[in-house]
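Lecture notes, unit on binding sites. The following record was shown on slide 14. It pairs a sequence with protoporphyrin IX containing FE.
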Amino acid sequence: MALVGPPPLINSAPLSVMLEDLRAERAATVPYPPGETRVSMARTRRFANDPLPMLLGGYERFGPVFTLRIFHSNVVFMLGPAANHYVTVSHASNFTWRESHFRDLIGLMGDGLLTIDGDFHRRSRLIMLPAFHRERILASADAVIGEVTSALDELEPGTTIDLYAWTRHLAVRVAMRALFGVDPDGEQARSIDAAALFEEALAFYASEYIFRVLRGPYSPWARMQKAASKLDGLIYSEIARRRTTGERGPDILSLLLDGHDEDGNTLNDVQIRDEVMTLLFAGHDTTTSTVSFMFYELARHPRVVERLIAEQDAQLAGGAPTAAQLVSGELTELEMVLEETLRKYPPAWIGPRRAVDAFEFEGHTVPARAFVNYCSWASHHLADVFPQPEEFRPERFAPEAAAELPKGAYIPFGGGSRTCIGMRFGQLEVRAIASLILSRCTLSLPDDYTLRIRQMPTISPKSGLPMIVGPRIAASSPSSLQAV
Ligand code: HEM
């Protein structure tokens, strides 16, 4: 028997959803936390374009829990270590994801792990967990290294590339091959440009709030659905091929096709499609942003690059990391750079939820059915937790310093029962891409480049990341750098 998924959202037409939100807000039996609750399109636009200063301002003025009216509804923000722990761990069962203000993602991902709750979430996660065990991740390392190595041939010294687009293309290929055992050079995969289709589909979430409620042939919603249906074609045909041929491998698709929960329930084709789409999305978008932000910061911190190269020269035979080194995170300089990148730029920057029952946190009440968000991006910029938060300082994550961080302070992968299931794979992939780039070349920024950040659905450099490819630098002594 197939696992029983959640019913469709009661009302998915955008205008009625908004009316329902307003009704729920009016039915509140306890007050919202303090904040800015008058309707304001200017605030909504500011939030859409540059949310971080607004959230940090809210924390300064109102404390760790406050309300901002964004577009039509009140949204409660909970920031800081205690708030993060409350939402993701100690009171996680009082929050749903599916009815959060990110519910539009269901339009692309359906009912995959990210957007489901409760028992269905627990059972689906149990089926998928074996694919993310350490030995499975270790086994996928060669496929990751292989993909990265061939992509690196495109990085010719003297050229300027868009590192964001290059990484996105690579990460989609890695996800196809390493996670799903699909050949990205196979006939069907070659007939579509999956990275471009994702770019097109995700553009919906970056469009203005007001355009997101539109439906109709040329709306952003219709464009997203069109891109999704092309990706569906690829996914469904691979499901059908595997079912017909019985072909299986050590990949997640095989696990989804044959997996079952403790009562023997299996996943049907639509549920498998939703999980594959979710993993393809979550598995490439976040790693792409992480690699981009990491090299943006490295280009501005030559001393850090020098330390990374010294570590490579000392520990990597022939310049390339082994699978075991990539899985273990034993290259400590690289690890600190990765952790500091994820502090300053956690790609999945917001944890969208909706409260089931009313609750009280730090002296303020939050009504039942309120939209509630935890936010790693803002929490990682609280100066009382991370001094001089705007500075990129990998040494914050030296083992003794990291051990001092309070519980819930550092949450780039979320927490509790919804902790990122792909964390180990994502870390391995970023380590592989970063190590192999560093072993081949140096990337620098054009003089006139200014980073602007797009925030939906994950944070990433707006309009890509131009980088100039140069020869690799050897750290022959701490103070002198030489081209090799
Ligand atoms: C640097 C890389 C990554 C980062 C920073 C990241 C971050 C996150 C965060 C913060 C969450 C929790 C969201 C919430 O609380 O609402 C999450 C969930 C999730 N991530 Fe990742 N992720 C990364 C890579 C990946 C990869 C590679 C995959 C798949 C192969 C993946 C699949 C998922 C899935 C399926 C969930 C939902 C888990 C659940 O609700 O049970 N992620 N991720």
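Take-home: The longest helix spans residues 269-300.
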